[in-house]
Amino acid sequence: MSKRNTDVAIIGAGPAGLTAAIYTRRALLSTVIFEKRTPGGQLKETECIENFPGIDEKTTAPGLMDQMHRQAERLGTKVLLEEVREIAVDAPSDSRYPYPPQRAPIRLVTAEGECVARTVIIASGSRPRPLPAQGADRFKGRGISYCATCDGFFFRGKRVLVVGAGDSALTEALYLTRFADWVGIVVRHPEQDPKAFRASRILQDRARAHPAIHFLWNRTIDEVRGDSFVSEVTLRNPSTGSREPCAIDGVFVSIGHTPETDFLKGFVDLDQRGYVMTDSMLRTHIPGVFAAGDVRAFTSRYAQAVIAAGDGAIAAIEAERYLSDPSSL
Predict the structure, then answer these.
(1) Active-site amino acid positions
(2) What is the model's pLDDT at position 114?
(3) 41 HSE (CA, 13 A, CB side)
(4) 3-state secondary structure at position 127
(5) I want to staple 16 with a disulfide (CB 3.0 to 4.6 A). Which of 5, 211, 302, 312 is the partner?
(6) Do residues 200 and 221 make contact, with C-beta atoms less than 8 angstroms apart?
(7) pLDDT the model gives residue 175
(8) How far is it, in rounded angstroms, from Cα 293 to Cα 41?
(9) Residue 16 parent element (H or E)
(10) What CATH fold (topology level) applies to the domain 2-127+257-328?
C-alpha cells in the first residue's frame, strides 16, 4: 500500500471539492482530491445549468464540471479515483511527534493506500434517495432510473413518469420531452397545496406550458411491476388511500438525497439525517477538518451548485488560515 502526505486532502470532486482545490492550490498548499466515482459530482448527470453566474444557457453542466476539473489539475491538484474508507486523527503517543495534540494531522485510508493530511475538507456530497415502492429495487436499470440525462435516450416514443416536485424533477421532465411522447409528473400533494412544488417558478411555468407534460396530483407510487422491464405502476392517493394502475414504460426518480457520510460515523458530528455539522466557518468539531457542499447540514437545504462552490471556497480559505495562523485554534 502506498502512503502519501499532503497539506490538504479533499474528499469528493463535485463543485465544492473542485472549488476548494482551486483555492488551496492558489495558496500553494499541496492538495489531493479523493473521488470514488467520476469527478464532477451529480452535475455530471444533469444536462444543462442555467443559474451558475457567468455561464450562458448553452453550457452543459458536465462541461462546466470538466472545466473545473481541468482547472484544479492545471493548478497542481492530484485527483485520485479512490474511495476513502476510514478517517481518523493520526496522533501517536510519541514524544518526538512533531505536532501539538490539537493540531494532529488526519489519516485517510483507501483500498490503494493511506494519506496523512494536515487538513481535510469533506465534500463527499450525497446520493439519490431510492423510490420507496414495492418492486423499485428489482427494476433499477430496467425502467427505474435516477438520471434522465443518462437514460432518457432509451425511452424514445415511450410513456414515462417523473417522481418529484423540485428543480431537479422538473428539469428532468423537460429534458425527457425530447424523447418520450408522454411525460407524467407524480406530485404527492394536491395542486392547490402551497407545498406541492419546491421548484422555481420559471421551471413550473415551463413544465405547465409543455404539451407533452401531464401532472398527476395527489399521487404516490406504491408498486412497480413488469416482466423483465417496467410495464406498470400502482398509483396511490394519499388523501383517500385509493389505488389505480398506470401503464408506463419507465420511471425517473428525483425525490431528494442521502448524504455520503457512512465512513464518517463516529468521526465527526452528524445531524439526525446524517449530514455533517459545522460552524459558520465550516469547521467540524475536529481541529483541521472542514465540510463543504451538499454533505453539510446547512448547505443540503439548497442543493445548488453555486452554493456548494461558495462553500468550497470558504472551506479552503479557512483551511489555509488554520495552517498559517496558530491563533485560529
Answers:
(1) 147, 150-151
(2) 94
(3) 32
(4) strand
(5) 312
(6) no
(7) 94
(8) 11
(9) helix 15-26
(10) FAD/NAD(P)-binding domain (3.50.50)
243-247 β-sheet, strand order: 220-226, 230-236, 243-247
pLDDT digit string, tens, across residues 48-62: 777 788 877 667 888
Q: Is 274 left (phi over 0), alpha (psi -120 to 50) or beta?
A: left
- Name residue 214's beta-bridge partners: 184
Q: 69: helix, coil or strand? A: helix
Which of 108, 251, 234 minimizes the C-alpha distance to 185?
A: 251
Q: In whole angstroms, give the CA distance from residue 288 to residue 329.
A: 9
Q: Strands of 182-186's sheet, edge to edge?
A: 144-145, 250-253, 159-163, 182-186, 213-216
**Which CATH number applies to 130-253?**
3.50.50.60
Q: Other CB atoms closer than 10 Å to residue 44's CB: what's the count?
A: 22
* Domains 2-127+257-328 and 130-253 are alike in CATH topology: yes
pLDDT value, residue 132: 94
